[in-house]
Design brief:
By secondary structure, this protein is mainly alpha-helical. The protein contains eight helices and four strands; from the N terminus they run ααααββββαααα. Strand 1 and strand 2 form a beta hairpin.
């Protein structure tokens, strides 16, 4: 009788787990008043006047982020006082939207603009120092939506250390 050969181990197949498994996808529930107050108190306690002003304008106006960052100082403030009402044309719908600013929002907005300075044509919430919008950044943002949360929050470099083609780096399209 011949000794039987040991069977080769079957390759193990790991199931592919989607990055958003268990996450709630789709529209999120609106913030509850308790959550809004909690965020406000945290921002006030930490002295983050820009973030507080941005949060309160967002809550009052119900605008999208792309519309909030396009706000100009002259649209919200005149003679060192904030308007009670403001109007902006939404980027997505191209329709004018009028919203009212509460007293608390006006106070935090004036505090932020007093700290920040600037003219009537300047953005209320400018880009942070050193931030440069580029095609590379837009591609990273588009790719970021497809990556898991752990990839978006860590200091991962999605691009090599080589400069872009217009800076003397390799032309990726020519390599294809």
């Amino acid at each position: 009788m011949q000794p039987s050969k040991p069977k080769a181990a079957a390759p193990t197949i790991r199931p592919v787990v989607p990055w958003n498994k268990g996450a709630f996808v789709g529209p999120k529930l609106p913030l509850k008043p308790k959550q809004v107050w909690s965020i406000r108190l945290t921002l006030q306690r930490e002295g983050r006047i820009r973030d507080l002003a941005l949060f309160e304008v967002a809550i009052d106006s119900k605008l999208r982020g792309c519309d909030l960052v396009q706000l100009r100082i002259g649209q919200l403030v005149i003679n060192a006082a904030a308007w009670h009402r403001a109007t902006i044309v939404q980027q997505k719908t191209e329709k004018p939207v009028q919203f009212e600013l509460t007293q608390q929002t006006r106070e935090s907005l004036i505090a932020w603009l007093t700290h920040r300075g600037g003219g009537l044509q300047d953005f209320v919430f400018p880009q942070p120092d050193g931030y440069r919008r580029s095609h590379q950044h837009a591609a990273v943002c588009a790719l970021g939506g497809r990556l898991g949360r752990e990839h978006r929050t860590g200091p991962i470099r999605l691009w090599g250390s080589q400069p872009a083609p217009h800076q003397g780096g390799p032309d990726l399209q020519a390599d294809r």
